[in-house]
Amino acid sequence: MQVQALYQQKRTTAAEAVRQVRNGDFIVVPTGVGEPPTLLTALSEQRLDFRDVKVGQILAMRKYGYFDPATTEHVRHVAYFFGGASRAGGQAGWIDFIPNCFSEIPAQIERGQMPADVVFSLASPMDAEGFFALSLGTDYTMAAVAKARAVVLEVNPNVPYTFGDCKVHVSQVAALVEDERPVMEVGLPTIGVVQEAIGKYVADMIEDGSTLQIGYGGIPDAVVMQLAHKRDLGIHTEMLGEGILTLVESGAVTNRRKNYLPGKMVATFALGSEKLYRFMDRNPMLEMHPAHFTNDPMLAGQNDRLVAINATLQIDLLGQCGSESLGSAPFSGTGGQSDFVRAANRSRDGKAFIVLPSTAKGDTISRIVPVLSPGTHVSTSKNDINYVVTEYGVAQLRGKSARQRARELIGIAHPAFRAELTAEARRLHLL
């Protein structure tokens, strides 16, 4: 059958498409803005018709109707990573959580360790050969497509068609719905004086010809804003955002000196503006690949001078990073932090940066602590940590003793807390 005939055969309403879901199913949804709003709204409206359906996703962007503690026996959200839409429910316990490293989710789906009965995803328009691009959230969704009983796509002309391992053929699809609303836009975080100071320390240590992985947040974006004068930077990252687009426009990113996929930017999901999504469309410089490719430390680490820039919430004097919880209360998730820290450590002349303001709550709390708060989820281990940066400087910890680490970290703590940290380090026999 011709691909256009197949398309028309599978085209339906969102209310009908949601009937592909059965009681007990696990629905996989892409990261961030790759989530399909029309389908998830229809699922929310019909949620009382289902029992024991779960929706798994990294970084939900909107609180759909099914984000409802009163109806979790019908449809429950399962977070692979908490964001603004899911954090409160996770902390209250009515949203569930699956711990993971981003790079390993596709393999866990493939092996049946993480379920995938149905896929709901935004998709680009179909090409002449019958392929859609899952460009905004390639991540673990491609593995779920291969595993799922039913793939349901929300086709939107505002979704970019991109190259890479992100294509789904119309023959693989159970149902299609169409929508033309703009793709959700996500602006740059607020960058203050502290973020700028941290960004300058990191930017000064990034050499021409480096390949960058840049996480989301004010500090990583503050670094990016100070790299426009660099030359021949490359991109091998999980998230493609506005900061990277700025570097491309300034001429700083050429990808010429990458060892792995030279000439190509590589990412697994996008989070930005309509301008970014237009930049992605049929751009031969860009490839979108699943997370087991982008975040594999062995692959990413083949690039010399790989720089990984990620944020943490708290770090102890051994260098353990609590990047995803406030004590035992979940806040985000591991994501790709540990993947890229390890990748940068493997890379020749690579640099893994963990960045954080020295204090929180109006300078009343030190983020550098003798020991992590009880229940804190450790994201980057003491064995993997390398550079730690606050607004007071850079501590290089890799290869250093516990005593040396304590001194280095106290040296970049807020001055008001250094005496207290020193006394606690002595009590712990670190000094």
Task: Explain what the structure shows.
This protein is α/β, with parallel strands linked by helices and 431 residues long. It has a seven-stranded parallel beta sheet with strand order 4-3-2-1-5-7-9, sandwiched between helices. It has a six-stranded mixed beta sheet with strand order 11-10-16-21-25-26, with helices on both faces. The chain has a three-stranded mixed beta sheet with strand order 18-17-24, with no helix packed on it. α4 links the parallel β3 (75-81) and β4 (96-97). 52% of the residues are buried. The mean pLDDT is 96.
Features:
single chain, alpha/beta, seven-stranded parallel sheet, six-stranded mixed sheet, 26 strands
Question: How would you describe the shape?
Answer: globular
Range of helix content: 25-40%
State Rg. Answer: 22 Å
Number of helices: 15
Oligomeric description of these chains: single chain
What topology, given as strand order, has the largest sheet? 4-3-2-1-5-7-9
End-to-end gap: 74 Å
**How many beta-strand runs?**
26
| Low-pLDDT residue intervals, each spanning 5 or more residues | none
Give the mean pLDDT.
Answer: 96
- Give the percentage of residues in beta strands: 15-25%
Short description:
The chain is an alpha/beta fold and 431 residues long.
Topology:
Elements: H1 3-10, H2 14-17, E1 26-28, H3 37-45, E2 53-58, E3 75-81, H4 87-92, E4 96-97, H5 105-110, E5 118-123, E6 131-133, H6 141-147, E7 150-155, E8 167-169, E9 175-178, H7 193-204, E10 211-214, H8 218-224, E11 234-235, E12 239-241, H9 242-250, E13 265-267, E14 269-271, H10 274-280, E15 286-288, H11 291-294, H12 297-300, E16 306-311, E17 314-316, E18 321-322, E19 325-326, E20 329-330, H13 337-346, E21 351-355, E22 359-360, E23 365-366, E24 368-369, E25 387-390, E26 393-396, H14 402-411, H15 415-427
Parallel strand pairs: 1-2, 1-5, 2-3, 3-4, 5-7, 7-9, 10-11, 10-16, 12-14, 13-15, 16-21, 17-24, 21-25
Antiparallel strand pairs: 6-8, 17-18, 19-20, 22-23, 25-26
Helix pairs in contact: 7-8, 14-15
